[in-house]
Specification:
It is a single chain. The chain contains 7 helices and 4 strands, in the order ααααβααβββα. It is an alpha+beta fold and 160 residues long. It folds into 2 domains: 57 residues, no CATH class; 82 residues, 3-Layer(aba) Sandwich (Glutaredoxin), CATH 3.40.30. Strands 2-1-3-4 form a 4-stranded mixed β-sheet, with helices on one face. Helix 3 packs across helix 4 and helix 6 crosses helix 7. Bound molecules: FE2/S2 (inorganic) cluster (FES). FE2/S2 (inorganic) cluster (FES) binds next to helix 5.
């Protein structure tokens, strides 16, 4: 999937300056950039490397290691399906299947319209409400096939 964004290099520079070009702040700088674009545009990595005076390989390995940083465009809504034991027992697999069908993507991918990213996560600490999903900061529990699709539809409506 190739979805190039236009990079505002001045803005990136401002972020780097905000952290005083501190190499130790690499992850936080990446997080701030990700907050703007909803992912970490790969073309910004060599720029960071040069500005902070750190090796390209370090920048790439930090970007690849942390789950909060994505080098691929992500959706406006990040849908996390809990696949922890309690949710698994309560039908998390059916929830994932329903979401994959409705969104027409596999787990780990983003819809072509950049609206939703679907991810599996471990226990998020609401086991009694399982099966549970989160959409960005919101948690939805006690779901079945139809109610989870309704949840997704409600987010779609927000954008129309
Ligand atoms: S197993 Fe899903 S919230 Fe704990």
């Amino acid at each position: 999937m190739e979805n190039r964004v236009t990079i505002d290099w001045d803005k990136i520079d401002q972020i780097i300056e905000k952290y005083n070009r501190d190499q130790e702040s690499l992850l936080m700088i990446m997080q701030d950039i990700s907050d703007i674009y909803n992912y970490m545009p790969p073309e910004t990595l060599p720029f960071l490397s040069r500005k902070l005076g750190v090796a390209d390989t370090l920048v790439y390995s930090v970007a690849s290691f942390y789950k909060t940083i994505s080098l691929e465009p992500r959706g406006k809504f990040i849908v996390n399906v809990c696949t922890g034991t309690a949710c698994h027992v309560r039908g998390a697999e059916k929830i994932t299947e329903a979401l994959e069908g409705s969104l027409d993507i596999k787990e780990g991918r983003t819809t072509a319209d950049q609206m939703f990213t679907l991810e599996a996560v471990r226990c998020i600490g609401c086991c009694a409400s399982g099966p549970v999903i989160t959409v960005n900061q919101d948690t939805h529990g006690g779901l079945d096939r139809s109610s989870v699709l309704k949840v997704i539809d409600d987010y779609r409506q927000l954008e129309t």
